[in-house]
Amino acid sequence: MFKPTVDLKPDMLALLGVCSDENSSFMRGPAESPPAIRGALHSGSANLTAESGIDLADNPRFIEAGDISVQDGAEAFMGIEIDVGQIVGTGALPLVLGGDHAITYPVLRAVAGRYGPGAISILHFDAHPDLYDDFEGNRLSNACPFARIMEEGLAKRLVQVGIRCLNAPQKKQAQRFGVEIHEAKALDVKSFDPALTGPVYISFDMDVLDPAFAPGVSHFEPGGLSVRDVISIIHKIEAPIVGADIVEYNPRRDIHNMTAMVAAKMVKEIGGKMLLNAAGDTVGSG
Ligand code: MN
Ligand code: MN
């Protein structure tokens, strides 16, 4: 259950789970992922220190905001937007665990509601562009969130990394919205620099990773990035990161919880970077 946000203050990190997979185009499972990722994060097999030096354990700036369960339909999306809106309304930084990728649309609406439409630069990690106008008749599908976000003018830039499923209809949509696509086939991680200026939002679809690193996803797309690749890119961001999501982990497909551990690692690295880049932080505070 969503917890009251009275403890939240500006530049704190709020971890919120959204248990929803009603808009998954292929299979169910991601709705079960927030507790599984949290279980991996607190499993005792690893500590909570990010490579940047930020420690999430007993960190007064790291708040567990609980999970929200949502039903199908537009009303559910409004509920997500309202709850995330409460978090950003305090000045805190939401890190949202999906759920499938459909949830990014209402989350982004809430974040754009605070920082202004057209202010945010999105760094989107994914095997797929998720730019379909509709998918099998569903405009809220997990294959569509970035079409909704861009047609509403919610973002200044959409930078996609790791794409390896760019078909003709989505290429057309990318051109329509001026999406900056960095396909996996042409990505040089060392020289990659999208020159992001704040506020930045990170949307992290677990299937950006090669299935060898993250088999617990619904859509296997071989030829993906390594865990090291994505962490290297995230560590290079210097602008303030005002929100993020980690989506499409599917516990039903996982092996020995190894993908849950990867998602937990991304909580540490993305969350740590959000705290580090926020105003007034010092390394290892807390
Ligand atoms: Mn996606
Ligand atoms: Mn994907």
Write the layout of secondary structure elements.
Elements: E1 13-19, H1 33-41, E2 62-69, H2 74-89, E3 93-97, H3 104-115, E4 120-125, H4 145-151, E5 155-163, H5 168-177, E6 180-183, E7 200-205, H6 227-235, E8 241-247, H7 258-277
Parallel strand pairs: 1-2, 1-3, 3-8, 4-5, 4-7, 5-6, 7-8
Helix pairs in contact: 1-7, 2-3, 3-4, 6-7
Bound molecules: manganese (II) ion (2 copies).
Detailed description of the structure:
The chain has 286 residues and is α/β, with parallel strands linked by helices. It has one domain: 3-Layer(aba) Sandwich (Arginase, Chain A). Helix content is 29%, strand content 18%. The protein is built from 7 helices and 8 strands; from the N terminus they run E-H-E-H-E-H-E-H-E-H-E-E-H-E-H. The protein has an 8-stranded parallel β-sheet, sandwiched between helices. Strand 7, helix 6 and strand 8 form a beta-alpha-beta unit. Helix 1 packs across helix 7, helix 3 packs parallel to helix 4 and helix 6 runs parallel beside helix 7. The C terminus is likely disordered. One manganese (II) ion binds next to loops.
